[in-house]
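Allow me, if you will, to draw on your knowledge of protein folds for a short while. I have a record of one protein: its chain in single-letter code and its fold written as discrete structure tokens. Could you please explain, in whatever detail you think fit, how the structure tokens follow from the sequence? The record follows directly beneath this note:
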Amino acid sequence: MNVLLCPDSFKDALSAQDAATAMARGVQRAAPEAHVQVCPLADGGEGSLDALIAATGAERRQLNVQDALGRPRQAAWGWLSDQRTAFIELAEASGLQHLAADERNALHTSTFGVGELLLAALDQGAEKALLLLGGSATNDGGAGMLQALGARFLDQHGEPLPPGGAALNQLASLELDGLDPRLAKFSLEAAVDVDNPLLGERGASAVFGPQKGASPEEVEQLDRALGHFGDISAHALGDDYRTLPGAGAAGGMGFAAKAFLNATLKPGIEMIMQQADMAMLLAKADLVITGEGRLDGQSLAGKTPIGVSRAAKRLHKPVIVLAGSLGDGWQACFDEGVTAAFALADGPMTLADALPRTAELLEARCESLLRLWVHRP
């Protein structure tokens, strides 16, 4: 019997690798004879770089970059030399997890450090990059990234704009002649785990701004600023990508990647499964177990368990999802290939109580599931 374990991370509790390891312990306790294949996954957000490096054997590199507030930090990126491909995770440079709660400031945080990582990849000789958009602390429409790559954002006096999304309200001219010329022959795929447009009630500012520290008034301010940036960009480029699904990912980074760097936007889970050769792993599996912190109706937008289930459904493989919690609309996941889904809690407990027990609970659930599977008629 072949069991494929391919979870995402359980936020604030376990990395995808640690989650898979805990699952494997439970499976092997119930079915010592089972062949267990572990493949940690991610959907483009935090932890995606680790998943790609684990799947491909890419070299992990470090670079001193600016974080979302302009402070120095060491950011990791991946280099797959035989494919001349770089793996760049936005959250490594401009991630929300690097800021304390009182440091979150969607008005002024910047993606400049992401541009620095792209420059490092170009300097290495990269011909392609997978840009993982998720977990951002930013709402600057990718302006910081573009500035690092050589674009100039100028106000009405010809002065460079300060960092952050709020400053885009003062954008008077956009100079693109200074963009690194190597970008013209550079292939970029941007991983997104949402389908939000840039603007409006489903846009970057309204949906994701509050978690990055934006008040309702600041959300409106940021939405206007991104709209103004969109107007000037459309005039400069001759194309308007504001309504593109995924343009609102990572505070508008999806928009910048597509509009200025000609990126292909793809669901992050599909990109990572392709690198991990999930088609081959699924073909060999008799049972697939995946999971993440929460499964709900929003998971259908591109979260890991749904990406796995859709791929497994094509091969008629059973998929069990283990989640920290099951939220509103989770039953819709049955239509996407999920065979069964279970919450981890073994009794009433608070989140604070559950988090340190996540590995224990995953192990116990997998043991119970495999006992049932092994002894089915």
